[in-house]
Write a structure and sequence with these properties.
Layout lengths: L1 H17 L2 H6 L2 H21 L6 H13 L7 E3 L1 H12 L1 E4 L2 E6 L2 E7 L4 H4 L7 E5 L2 E2 L18 E8 L2 E8 L1 E4 L5 E5 L3 E5 L7 H15 L3 E5 L8 H9 L7 E6 L7 E4 L11 E5 L6 H11 L4 E4 L7 E7 L5 E10 L9 E6 L5 E3 L7 E3 L5 E3 L8 E2 L7 H8 L2 H12 L12 H14 L6 H15 L3 H25 L1 H29 L1 H10 L2 H8 L1
Parallel strand pairs: 11-12, 12-15, 15-16, 16-23
Antiparallel strand pairs: 1-18, 2-9, 3-4, 4-5, 5-6, 5-7, 7-8, 10-11, 13-14, 13-18, 17-18, 19-20, 21-22
Helix pairs in contact: 1-3, 1-4, 7-8, 8-9, 11-15, 13-14
Length: 544
């Protein structure tokens, strides 16, 4: 910690000289040169004289994080490996084991295996914890162990893992893995096409168009576009998806920045696929960035009905800037605006509260805008659906459960305690939900509310003022009341939490395809979309 405190204040000046000539233009050149000279001499003396061994690369990595930590969370430094990972993510194809794997708290956990890909064929399942890769035990491995799973197609990797307390070994043969932007589509009720759009990579527009063409051949006369949980991606692909449904030459988004060259207008550039087919778009609190450009653009142009819950609210645009040695700075360059002029950014990273946290914009201060047809829409807090569905929302308790992996871990436990042969037979009962509550209690699940944070800070101030003894009893009563209220929050959000539990359980049994097939028949948001598309007068009334 001492090392970081010494180093970070000085390196900030040097870092901005590394991002390119633009930074020099925006700041006094002499001052930057001066601070860079100071930093260089400090860096040299620190490495030569510090009492403990210091690693230059580690110091620099920590310093870069320190420079960027007070900016928005999307401005990040990518080393050479991170640059390659981003390239793979956007390309839609990579070579590996075909699994989503999380590295957290020094544990390498399998989150999902992709059907018929190497990890699946080798017998890995969601919830497995990998403890050794080839001859390398991971408990003492200092770098990101996920890198050890990468390799050329056809090469093999030995993996040892634990499952439900027992150790197993397997051999995985790596292969090419396609990351599908459209992992699933189908026909509902013979005339409604349903398309899941999970990410915006280089194949998004073409795969969406292919799905539309196939669905229309099958008889689709209406379309549901599912953007729930889609975190975004490439801006040009978002424009391309909107272009499938609106005329050539329509403004979809504009970007604004203090740097003139980043002020741009993005329009549709090709002839559309279908400008009149009725359209419903599903979003939730995890639909962000490019997903919000699509849903916001279609809403502002009165081209489709938006259904679900308020989207994430990311109205910032990033661009990678090449640095030396194959590294990059992914830097926020501008804000984007929907066709009506809305910026849907929800958090203000340039104005912080007393704790240094970004300020969430007050809904009372949202500005009203008009869609192309004259409907009123608002900025500042993501895209608000035309039809809100309770089960699509993410409350603070639900977010906490997801963050602590409680839903995933319970689903894994459920997987090994219950036998389900077909997704059609799956029922999540009230007893199952009560078991989930018991699971949370046994695991000691807890989360800290903003109220608790404020009260604890108030108690600290009271101690400084010599008042702690007088209010200690009342403080304990308040905290006890909050604990009881938090327990009630879980049951109050039963529908919301149950929907996520069902989704995770189904995915572990029947892969993503099984989940989608179940949701087409049982999901409240999809049912709401079907209902509005089947009610022509209601559909038209919403858009007018």
């Amino acid at each position: 910690m001492l090392r970081k405190k010494i180093f970070l204040p000085f390196v900030a000046f040097a870092l901005f000289t590394l991002v390119g000539f633009t930074a020099v233009v925006k700041t006094d050149f002499f001052e930057i040169a001066k601070q860079l000279e100071i930093f260089t001499s400090l860096y040299k003396e620190l490495n030569m004289n510090y009492v403990d061994k210091v690693t230059p690369a580690t110091l620099m990595d920590n310093a870069i994080k320190g420079v960027l930590q007070d900016l928005d969370p999307y401005t990040v430094y990518w080393n050479e490996q991170a640059v390659e990972d981003a390239r793979i993510k956007n390309s839609g194809v990579y070579t590996g084991v075909g699994a989503s794997i999380r590295f957290k708290n020094e544990k390498l956990t399998v989150l999902e295996v992709f059907e018929n890909y190497p990890a699946d064929k080798a017998g890995l399942r969601a919830g497995d914890i990998i403890i050794k890769i080839d001859q390398t035990p991971l408990d003492s491995y200092e770098d990101d162990p996920r890198e050890l799973l990468k390799g050329t197609a056809g090469s093999k990797v030995d993996v040892e893992y634990t499952r439900q307390g027992k150790n197993y070994t397997t051999v995985i043969t790596r292969s090419a893995v396609e990351v599908k932007a459209v992992p699933y589509y189908t026909l509902i009720n013979e005339d409604i096409g349903y398309i899941v759009l999970s990410k915006f990579n280089k194949k998004t527009t073409s795969q969406t168009k292919s799905a539309l063409e196939d669905l229309k051949l099958q008889g689709a006369k209406k379309i549901i576009l599912d953007l729930r949980g889609n975190p975004g991606g490439l801006l040009n692909q978002a424009i391309g998806v909107v272009n499938l449904f609106v005329e050539k030459g329509e403004v979809i988004t504009t970007t604004q920045s203090v740097i003139e060259k980043y002020n741009k207008v993005y329009k549709t550039t090709v002839e559309p696929f279908d400008v009149s087919i009725p359209l419903a778009v599903l979003i939730n609190g995890r639909s962000a960035s490019a997903s919000e450009i699509v849903s916001g653009g279609l809403q502002d142009l009165d081209r489709g009905v938006i259904i679900g819950a308020r989207s994430f609210g990311k109205g910032l645009v990033q661009r990678p800037k090449n640095l030396i040695y194959g590294s990059q700075l992914k830097v926020t360059i501008s804000r984007y605006f929907t066709p009506s002029g809305r910026c849907i950014q929800a958090l203000d990273y340039w104005n912080r509260d007393e704790n240094g946290d970004p300020v969430r914009l007050d809904p009372d201060k949202y500005n009203a805008f008009k869609t192309k047809g004259g409907r009123t829409v608002y900025d500042g807090g993501g895209i608000l659906p035309d039809i809100e569905i309770e089960t699509a929302k993410f409350s603070p308790i639900t977010t906490a459960l997801l963050r602590e992996n409680a839903i995933f871990d319970y689903a894994t436990q459920y997987r090994y305690k219950n036998k389900i042969e077909r997704w059609e037979d799956f029922i999540f009962t009230d007893k199952d939900f009560q078991n989930f509550l018991k699971y949370l209690k046994n695991k000691g699940f807890d989360f800290e509310t903003q109220t608790e944070v404020s009260f604890k800070k108030a108690l600290q101030k009271a101690e400084a003022d010599g008042l702690k003894k007088q209010i200690q009893g009342n403080f304990k009563e308040l905290m006890s009341a909050i604990t009881e209220a938090k327990k009630k929050k879980v049951t109050d959000r039963k529908l919301e939490i149950t929907a996520l539990l069902k989704a995770q359980i189904l995915k572990q049994y029947f892969y993503s395809v099984g989940l989608y097939e179940y949701q087409v028949l049982n999901n409240p948001e999809i049912r709401a979309a079907v209902d509005v598309l089947n009610n022509e007068s209601r559909y038209k009334k919403i858009l007018k």
